[in-house]
From TrEMBL:
This is Response regulator protein VraR. The keyword Nucleotidyltransferase does not apply. The lineage of its organism: Bacteria, Pseudomonadati, Planctomycetota, Planctomycetia, Pirellulales. Residues 133-198 form the HTH luxR-type domain. GO terms for biological process: phosphorelay signal transduction system; regulation of DNA-templated transcription. It comes from Rubripirellula obstinata. Transmembrane segments: none annotated. Keywords: DNA-binding, Phosphoprotein. The modification 4-aspartylphosphate is found at residue 55.
Length: 202
């Protein structure tokens, strides 16, 4: 049985390399490629692949948002997230929204191939950071606390990025992680919970 795969990554060289590598594997077939999250969700609806491999960081829609759209289209969609790093917030968001595995781009090809077969068989591959995120849902990291304090001061993501010498994307990831851990929808809600928990002081 051939496993049909959709790959979404905005780095064309990496994407071409993945397609070439997976095409050499028996029982694997890449049926669609996308260079942003929005296109990935469109191609998913068109092709209905068995497995989606989504880069976490993509333009237009990032991988997490694409994952959410795909799971709306097909709630049991099997998705593997791909990233250059293992940030706890990104891993936690992937788990929360239904990803079955999280693989770094630095991993040997056999790791991704193994993940594809295991996820296709219905397995959800536990990741140490995923387990940590679940166990510490309401506990903010020191960096998240710094970000929360600046959010409480009314700073924009851009200003927080400047203050902490981070990229705007990284700041957005921290903010998303805080909202997820506090189970709130917006920054005001996060600040409110921060005061309730004593993380923020009046």
């Amino acid at each position: 049985m051939t496993i049909r795969i959709l790959i979404a990554d905005d780095h064309s060289l990496l994407r071409v390399g993945l397609v070439s590598m997976l095409s050499n594997e028996q029982e694997l077939s890449v049926v669609a490629e996308a260079d942003d999250g929005e296109r990935a969700s469109e191609l998913f609806e068109q092709h209905r692949p068995d497995i989606c491999i989504l880069d976490v960081r993509m333009p237009v829609l990032d991988g997490i948002e694409a994952l959410m759209r795909i799971r709306v289209i097909q709630p049991d969609a099997k998705v593997i997230m791909l990233s250059t790093a293992e940030l706890e917030e990104e891993v936690a968001q992937s788990l929360k929204h239904g990803a079955a595995a999280f693989v770094t781009k630095a991993a040997p090809p056999v790791v991704l191939v193994d993940a594809i077969h295991r996820v296709h068989s219905g397995e959800v591959i536990n990741h140490p950071l995923l387990e940590t995120s679940v166990a510490m849902q309401e506990h903010l990291s020191p960096r998240e606390i710094e970000v929360l304090h600046l959010v409480a001061l009314g700073h924009s993501n851009k200003q927080i990025a400047i203050d902490l010498s981070l990229s705007i994307h990284t700041v957005k990831t921290y903010v998303k992680g805080i909202l997820a851990k506090f189970k709130v929808q917006d920054r005001a809600g996060a600040v409110s919970v921060g005061y309730e928990k004593g993380i923020l002081k009046i």
